Structures are given as structure tokens and as C-alpha cells.
Amino acid sequence: MGLSGSCPGQESEIGPALDLSPLPPELLLQILLHVPPRMLVTRCRAVCRQWRELVDGPALWRLRWAQTKDASSQDLLEATHYCPPAPKPCSWARLGILEPLGRNLLRNPCGQEGFQSWELENGGEGWAIEENRKPVPGAQAQTCFVSSFR
Predict the structure, then answer these.
(1) Of the four listed, 16, 32, 105, 138, which is most buried by Cβ atoms within 10 Å?
(2) pLDDT tens-digit profile of 45-62?
(3) Please, which residues have CB within 8 angstroms of residue 114's CB and are 6 or more apart in sequence?
């Protein structure tokens, strides 16, 4: 027993719309905690000004990181407590989606692909790639960048 869709012969189940606007922000925040981060930014943020402010603000993301038990989320939560106030507002949503801690953000960080993805500037007698002097357990590669700069 669905409503007619836009295509003839196709039916879709559409439930009644639920208006969440009368909810206090604290309760709405608890509901938004169950929404995946990308959907928060791409869909929920566009609903209304109140939702945008919640998604862009620190409370939602700090609660999300506090509930998530992985190391990256815990590191992000801890880092936000020690960061000095920024002159520009912090993009909490961007931090929440990218989760930049706990992973390497550099391309070709240990020289496996030569100097690809790196722009060299002068200093010393240049850069080279060498084998690590001691094996690094768990490393993807056993090479590193070295400089002749003294």
C-alpha cells in the first residue's frame, strides 16, 4: 500500500514526515549522533539554520569522538581540548570527516617512489633516499629521506 511514484507502475513506501524542529537542541544533538558523518555534512547541514549550527559546532563532534572508542577519535578529542582558540572558526565537520590523526597525510612519506610528490628546495648538498639503519617494525617501507645538510 504505497503512494504512486513519479514513474507509472512504480510504487514507493513513504512514511509520514516527522517534524523535529520543536525538539530542544540537546535532544536533536543526541539524534544527530546516530547519523553518519558524511550525511551530517552533506544532508543534515542543509535542513535549517539550527541543524547547520549543530553540525558546524564543536558539541556534536566532541560527543561523537567521546562515544567512539578508536584511538584516532580519542586523539582528536584530546587535541581539541588543548588547542588554543583560532582566529578563524575551526571546521569541526571537516575534522570529523577527515579524521587526520593516526594516519600519514603525506604522499610517498619514506621515498619508496623516489622524489615523486615532493618539491625539492635547495639546502645542503641535496636529498637522498637510503635504507633505514635499523628495521622499523610495522613500517610499509624500510627507506627514508636523508639530507646532507650539516
Answers:
(1) 32
(2) 899 999 999 998 888 988
(3) 108, 129
